[in-house]
Amino acid sequence: MKSIELSEVSALVPLVTPGSQEPVILTRDGRTVAAIVPANEEDVESLLLSISPQFQAILERSQQRLESDGGVPSTDVRKKLGLPPAEA
Question: Three-state secondary structure along 63-88?
């Protein structure tokens, strides 16, 4: 991931303000090349995971295993972790 201090991109400073919910679209020769969207630390983590090929491969393998082997009932998980039964 690349990051740059907003103050280093003077043309963007007036467009990106705290609390703003409006994205800023960056173009080159009239074509969209990037978007700047409001984000907090949790948003950045979610974004990075969503575009990570390694993480996507883990999710795909997990889904395939769930479909082929089935899941573990929550009662079994709670028992194994020493947690009380879930309330109905």
Answer: HHHHHHHCCCCHHHHHHHCCCCCCCC
Please, are residues 38 and 20 in contact by the beta-carbon 8 Å criterion?
yes
In 1-88, which residue ranges form alpha helices assigned H by DSSP?
A: 41-50, 53-69, 74-80
Residues 26 and 34: beta-carbon distance below 8 Å: yes
pLDDT per residue over 38-71, tens digit each? 888 888 899 999 999 999 999 999 999 999 999 9
Residue 12 binned pLDDT confidence (cut-offs 50, 70, 90): confident
Grouping H, G, I as helix, E, B as strand and the rest as coil, residue 11 is coil
The pairs formed by 5-11 with CB atoms below 8 angstroms and a separation of 24 or more are none
Question: Contact at 8 Å (CB) between 26 and 33?
Answer: yes
Q: Are 49 and 57 in contact (CB under 8 A)?
A: no
